[in-house]
Write a structure and sequence with these properties.
Oligomer: single chain
Distance between the termini: 73 Å
Structural class: alpha+beta
Number of strands: 9
Largest sheet: 5 strands, antiparallel
Radius of gyration: 29 Å
Length: 170
């Protein structure tokens, strides 16, 4: 005869390792989703500005003007750099030529943008060397991808050069 007082414990489905494993996986799944939703709402990447529409229109107009300027000037712009390692200075060399002749810009500004964290963005004024190139020693504080924009001013003309780089860990 069956003992009615012990049968739920003895034959309980909760003693099965399969059921315990399934419950643990479901609990883990929902915990991770709740954590990701909480992180998404509590952190802001600062990629959207309040005046995005005006800035977009302004960017479009500036891009058109800069493209016309590049066509008029016929500049060949290149940016050379050594291996970029987090925390170590890297030399960036900007050279501008037109029809084989070096161009000496009046000013060149190096902007570095971190796509995932706008607080890490910075700018450096580039120095002119004797070869007609512009150089900057730059140290990056974070590894990963960075967007570089160099704004070049020469008399009445202004144009820019953009490049994406990857900073390695030491």
């Amino acid at each position: 005869m069956k003992d009615d007082n012990n049968w739920p414990e003895k034959d309980s489905a909760f003693k099965s390792p399969w059921l315990r494993g399934i419950i643990a996986l479901i609990t883990l799944f929902f915990s991770v989703n709740i954590y990701m939703a909480w992180t998404a709402f509590s952190t802001k990447p600062n990629l959207v500005t309040p005046d995005y529409y005006k800035r977009g229109q302004s960017f479009t107009e500036r891009t058109k003007v800069k493209n016309r300027t590049k066509e008029i000037l016929n500049w060949d712009i290149s940016l050379a750099h050594e291996e970029i390692i987090k925390g170590k200075p890297s030399l960036f060399t900007l050279s501008i030529t037109t029809e084989g002749n070096s161009i000496h810009p009046s000013e060149a500004t190096f902007f570095a943008y971190r796509p995932s964290d706008s607080k890490k963005d910075f700018k450096v004024t580039m120095n002119h060397d004797s070869d007609g190139n512009s150089t900057a020693n730059v140290t990056f504080s974070e590894q990963g991808y960075w967007d570089l924009i160099i704004v070049i001013t020469n008399n009445d003309y202004e144009t820019d050069y953009a490049q994406r780089i990857f900073v390695k860990s030491p």
